[in-house]
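To the wet lab folks,

You asked to see what we're planning to order before we commit. Fair enough. Below is the target structure as tokens, and below that is the sequence we designed to fit it. If anything looks off to you, flag it before the synthesis order goes out.
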């Protein structure tokens, strides 16, 4: 059996497995909907809804459960760490760690196979050490690329939250000073900044849902700081917890912290402005300075050549 037949069989196997996973997910979703509808019909309007506003973190699909138990995320500590990293990147689905492992394994196997298949169709294929080295390089890329993508998305989301948080904090100060409670202020701010600041709106909505679900204010705020991993939001959560414990005024605390955040943004803007002359030194020395020196010295060089050229011609004669 040649390489072409092997590649076709592997591609067909991967396609069937992927379609099976998708069909299982779809069937499970339909069964859950039917189960909730039957529960609502039996219990009547007085029965509480089966769906909870607290997100379930367990994987219920049997295939995904088997993959979770058979791979590197079988350990609870590693799985929770991967789940936190994916949540900080914006992938907060309960099955996100399992799908991350699946995609990582698929890329680590699929990229070398695609490379080997492309070499069978090439007129000048790689052979020997080059072929093995290139296949190993594609395998390493498949292992590293998903993690690099998650880290990049996490950094972008963290930077966006850090940029959006001061504006939301100023609006929260206005809401609290107007007489709203802290829980109502979270809801109001989330509804107002939904279009302009969608990420901080999502985080505030999660805090509101957790408070309505029965979590204490301290637990919800700690979860907000751990979930975002932004220093400003961590300090905000710790400050509110301390204020709630000591019984001091939340409005005055938020106003003081908002003023500090505004000063911090001003200092960061000044820092970036001060870095501009240093950053401009490299292109100035590498690009502009040689042109200036050449244009200043060029007339003297031309005059020197004109004076020396007749003398050199006369000596040659």
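Sequence we intend to order:
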């Amino acid at each position: 059996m040649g390489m072409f037949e092997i590649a076709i069989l592997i591609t067909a196997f991967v396609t069937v497995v992927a379609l099976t996973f998708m069909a299982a997910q779809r069937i499970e979703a339909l069964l859950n909907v039917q189960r909730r509808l039957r529960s609502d019909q039996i219990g009547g309007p007085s029965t509480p809804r089966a769906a909870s506003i607290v997100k379930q973190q367990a994987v219920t699909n049997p295939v995904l459960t088997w993959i979770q138990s058979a791979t590197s995320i079988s350990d609870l500590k590693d799985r929770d760490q991967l789940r936190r990293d994916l949540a900080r990147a914006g992938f907060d689905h309960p099955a996100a760690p399992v799908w991350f492992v699946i995609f990582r394994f698929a890329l680590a196997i699929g990229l070398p196979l695609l490379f080997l298949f492309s070499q069978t169709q090439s007129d000048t294929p790689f052979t020997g050490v080059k072929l093995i080295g290139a296949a190993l390089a594609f395998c390493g890329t498949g292992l590293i690329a998903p993690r690099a993508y998650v880290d990049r998305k996490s950094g972008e989301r963290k930077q966006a939250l850090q940029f959006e948080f001061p504006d939301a904090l100023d609006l929260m100060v206005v809401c609290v000073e107007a007489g709203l409670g802290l829980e109502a202020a979270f809801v109001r701010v989330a509804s107002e900044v939904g279009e302009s600041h969608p990420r901080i709106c999502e985080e505030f909505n999660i805090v509101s849902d957790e408070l309505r679900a029965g979590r204490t204010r301290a637990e919800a705020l700690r979860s907000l700081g751990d979930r975002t991993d932004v220093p400003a939001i961590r300090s905000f959560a710790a400050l509110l917890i301390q204020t709630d414990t000591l019984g001091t005024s939340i409005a005055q605390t938020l106003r003081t912290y908002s003023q500090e955040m505004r000063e911090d943004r001003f200092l960061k803007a000044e820092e970036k402005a001060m870095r501009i002359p240093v950053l401009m030194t490299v292109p100035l020395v590498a690009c502009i300075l040689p042109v200036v020196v050449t244009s200043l010295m060029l007339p003297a060089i031309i005059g020197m050549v004109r004076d020396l050229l007749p003398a050199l011609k006369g000596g040659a004669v």
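Structural context that might help your review: Residues 3-44+51-157 form one domain. The radius of gyration is 31 Å.

Thanks,
Computational group
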